[in-house]
Amino acid sequence: MSKFVKEMIISEIESQIGDVRDFVVIDSAKVDAITDNSFRIKLQEKGLTALTVKNSLARRAFANKGIEGLEEVLKGPSTLVWGGEDIVELSKEMSKWAKEIQELDIKGGLTEGTSLSTDDVTKLSKSPGRVELIADIVGRILGPGSQLAATIKGPGGTVVGQIKSIAEGEEG
Questions:
Q1: Is the pTM of this model over 0.70?
Q2: CA angle at residue 83 from 52 to 63, to 5 degrees?
Q3: pLDDT tens readout for residues 52-109
Q4: According to the UniProt entry, where is the signal peptide (predicted)?
Q5: Burial class of residue 96 in the structure, from the number of CB atoms within 10 Å of its CB (0-12 exposed, 13-18 middle, 19+ buried)
Q6: Are 8 and 53 in contact (CB under 8 A)?
Q7: What is the DSSP letter of 79?
Q8: Where are the domains of the chain?
Q9: pLDDT tens digits, residue range 11-65?
Q10: Per CATH, is 3-127 categorized as 3.40.50.720?
C-alpha cells in the first residue's frame, strides 16, 4: 500500500471517529459474513458504529487525534465500535452481542483516556448507565421532600394537628 493511500485511510479514520473518546475493540474475524452484516446493521439502528481497521493505521490516526490507551488492544484483527449515550451503554451492547455470537470476542476498550481490558468492559456492562444514575439521584433528592409533604398532607394532618396542639398548649 502506497504512502498516499495510507494517509488517505488514516484521514478517513480520523474523520469517522471525530471527537469520540469512548471505544470498545472487538475481534469479529471469525464471524461469518451474513452474521457480521446483520450485526453491523443492528448496531447502526442503535446509533453505534463499527469500523474494521488495520491496526498500524488506526494507531497513527489515534496518535494524530491525541488519543492514547488503545495500543495494547490493537493487536490482531480489530474492529472499533463507538457511539451510543455512554461507555456503559456501549459495553452492555457489545457484551450482549458477544454472548449471542460465540465467535465475537471483546478485546478491550478505552474511556476518557483509560484503557479497558476485556474484564473491565464486562464489569462496565453490569453497572447502571447514565440515565439510570440520573434517575437514582433525582429519586434520592426528591425522596425526603415527598415524605415530608405526605406527612403534612396525610390523613388527619398529623403533623399540622400536632403543631396546632403544641401551639394551643403554650397559649393556655
A1: yes
A2: 60
A3: 999 999 999 999 998 888 888 899 889 999 988 888 899 999 999 999 999 999 999 9
A4: none
A5: exposed
A6: no
A7: E
A8: 3-127, 131-171
A9: 999 999 888 889 999 999 999 999 999 999 999 999 999 999 999 999 999 999 9
A10: no
